[in-house]
Amino acid sequence: QVQLVESGGGLVQAGGSLRLSCTASGPTGSNYAMGWFRQSPGEERVIIAAISRIAESTYYADSVKGRFTISKDSAKNTTYLQMTSLKPEDTAVYYCAADERAYSAAYYATGTMHYWGKGTLVTVSS
Question: What is the band of 29 on the pLDDT scale with cuts at 50, 70, 90?
Fold first, then answer.
């Protein structure tokens, strides 16, 4: 099965930017729908962005819409999350996820993904 590794997390001041990367390895011959989730202390893990298998559709949670951008480079087996105008409430562990099914990105607003990375911590200071 596909393995996912996130990178790019760290400490940033409010108003700053970060770019997270998720690199897939293993059986990556097929395209995957990709998603970014986050989990803040004491809260459930929630989806914040998703992109469909061939990148024809994207989904964003209201909390990040207009500030975050998801993209994928299939040649590099890498998915990105560009985060701008960061707020202290964006502090969380960010997880990358993948799904082999051919759903639109909006499906993953409530749907599940099958493969998960271990997460990368993003801390936004005020």
Answer: low
